[in-house]
Design brief:
By secondary structure, the chain is an alpha+beta fold. The protein has one domain. It has helices spanning about 1-15, 60-65, 75-80; strands at about 25-30, 50-55, 85-95, 105-110, 115-125, 140-145, 160-165, 165. A five-stranded mixed beta sheet has the order 1-4-5-7-8, with no helix packed on it. It has a three-stranded antiparallel beta sheet with strand order 2-3-6, covered by helices on one side. It is globular. The termini are far apart.
Length: about 170
């Protein structure tokens, strides 16, 4: 009986020390943009052709093949030029926009266990803004050093996007 009480006491002490949480989720900020994109989304509908992709050395060729229809778009060549042996990249692409004044930015990336949570903001021109009258392809491409990540295999990472405070 006395040993049972001692064992129970030790068990309770261990639970208190470890925070009483078996799924202890630690979040680490691994990227913060230097400046936040100014403006807001003023359109009635959210952008329809956005793309988000975690790009690693292992999947870079597949991403380029999958996006081969987009070879003329600036982000395609930016991906092509990346050396991902010591980094991973996150692409945020807004899609083709009818004119200038649109933008997209990855503001922050947080790692929580095997998830990379990217907070993304997109903006559109105000109705009275003077903008270029040419189709644009706004994108942001962020690279993160692998040594900042707390996983051994980057293939285990999942990308979660939070768009203007809505999870996608």
């Amino acid at each position: 009986m006395h040993r049972g009480l001692i064992f129970s006491g030790i068990l309770i002490l261990l639970l208190v020390i470890t925070g009483c949480n078996v799924n202890n989720k630690v979040s680490t900020v691994i990227y913060n943009s230097k400046e936040e994109l100014s403006g807001e989304w003023t359109e009635k509908e959210p952008p329809q052709e956005t793309r988000y992709k975690l790009i690693t050395n292992e999947n870079k060729r597949k991403v380029l093949r999958d996006y081969s229809d987009d070879e003329a778009k600036p982000y395609y060549h930016s991906i092509e030029e990346l050396d991902l042996t010591k980094e991973v990249a996150i692409l945020a692409y807004l899609g083709p926009m009818p004119n200038g004044g649109y933008g997209i930015q990855i503001n922050k990336v947080i790692q929580r266990n095997n998830k990379l949570i990217a907070k993304v903001k997109y903006v559109s021109p105000k109705p009275d803004d003077l903008v270029t009258m040419i189709v644009t392809y706004p994108y942001d491409l962020v690279t993160i050093k692998k040594n900042k990540l707390s996983v051994n295999n980057v293939a285990e990472l999942d990308l979660v996007i939070v768009e203007n405070n809505n999870i996608k």
